[in-house]
């Protein structure tokens, strides 16, 4: 049975590491808050009520796609599409096509940025592989005007960053919710982690400095992974109620080796 993503794919390695995934969604959390379509995430009320829980819900969908057969992955994508259609029908309006593309573009960018931060620089071929996986997700969803290659994607991604992001009252409120659910210390760590992976456009809109206090700590963290102490660090940095979900993220690590 063919898999949506081949076993030896760099995409499985990226999405088979819990710390890489946490950086992916830490960065995406910042960019999500700035997206001009963020009001759609507020429509059901689920995101502001439990932003961290929604993060893990999104992770589950993404991992179902990456680690499933083609048939099962397509069913997951279709299920996601049906959920969005139901929200559109409830609101009586359509989610803009560019908003869907923005989400795909975030997954491409933060998959690459997080892996390069924690592991190593990726080759052009590997970046193309990441792009191709999420291109197929978008194509299955019926999205239009998707760049066919990673090289073609780069200028389109930059254009989206300039056109589709703004700091709004939704942005401010969502960051307040992050802080409320994480606590002041963990929230500070989140912001410092975001600085390491978000594009300059996001840093400007959020008034982030170019430097993160986590930069000199990263080499120590990488050593902790070798000593199998990284789980302890992640448990400290995320609320106890989410530790079970964190442990589940590591279950697939062996599949990515």
- Taken from the alpha-carbon principal axes, the silhouette is globular
Secondary structure class reads mainly alpha
The total of helices stands at: 15
Largest sheet: none
Rg calc: 18 Å
Count of DSSP strands: 0
Order of helices and strands: HHHHHHHHHHHHHHH
Strand composition percent: under 5%
Instruction: Please indicate the count of domains.
Output: 1
The unreliable regions are 252-257
The mean pLDDT is 88
Distance between the termini: 20 Å
Helix content percent band: over 70%
Describe the structure.
The structure is a single chain. By secondary structure, the chain is mainly α. It has one domain (10-246). 71% of the residues lie in helices and 0% in strands. The protein contains 15 helices and no strands. It has helices at 10-14, 18-34, 39-43, 46-49, 51-66, 70-91, 97-118, 124-140, 150-164, 169-182, 184-197, 200-205, 218-226, 230-237, 243-251. α2 (18-34) runs antiparallel to α7, α5 (51-66) runs antiparallel to α6 (70-91) and α7 (97-118) crosses α9 (150-164). The longest helix is centred in the first third of the chain and has 22 residues, at 70-91. Residues 252-257 have low confidence and may be disordered.
Keywords:
single chain, 257 residues, mainly alpha, 71% helix, disordered C terminus
């Amino acid at each position: 049975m063919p898999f949506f993503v081949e076993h030896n794919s760099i995409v499985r390695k990226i999405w088979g590491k819990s710390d890489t995934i946490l950086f992916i969604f830490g960065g995406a959390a910042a960019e999500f808050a700035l997206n001009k379509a963020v009001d759609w995430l507020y429509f059901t009320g689920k995101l502001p009520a439990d932003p961290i829980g929604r993060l893990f819900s999104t992770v589950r969908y993404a991992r179902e796609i990456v680690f499933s057969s083609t048939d099962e992955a397509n069913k997951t994508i279709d299920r996601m599409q049906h959920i969005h259609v139901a929200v559109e029908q409830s609101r009586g309006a359509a989610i803009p096509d560019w908003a869907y593309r923005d989400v795909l573009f975030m997954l491409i960018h933060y998959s690459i940025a997080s892996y390069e931060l924690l592991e190593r620089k990726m080759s052009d071929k590997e970046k193309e592989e990441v792009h191709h996986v999420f291109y197929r997700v978008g194509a299955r969803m019926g999205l239009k005007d998707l760049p066919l290659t990673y090289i073609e994607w780069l200028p389109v991604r930059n254009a989206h960053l300039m056109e589709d992001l703004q700091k709004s009252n939704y942005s401010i409120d969502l960051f307040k919710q992050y802080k409320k659910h994480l606590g002041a210390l963990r929230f500070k760590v989140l912001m410092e982690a975001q600085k390491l992976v978000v594009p300059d456009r996001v840093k400007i809109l959020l008034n982030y400095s170019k430097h993160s206090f986590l930069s000199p700590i990263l080499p120590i963290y990488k050593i902790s992974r070798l000593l199998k102490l990284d789980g302890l660090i992640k448990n400290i940095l995320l609320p106890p109620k989410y530790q079970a979900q964190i442990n589940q993220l590591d279950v697939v690590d062996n599949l990515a080796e």
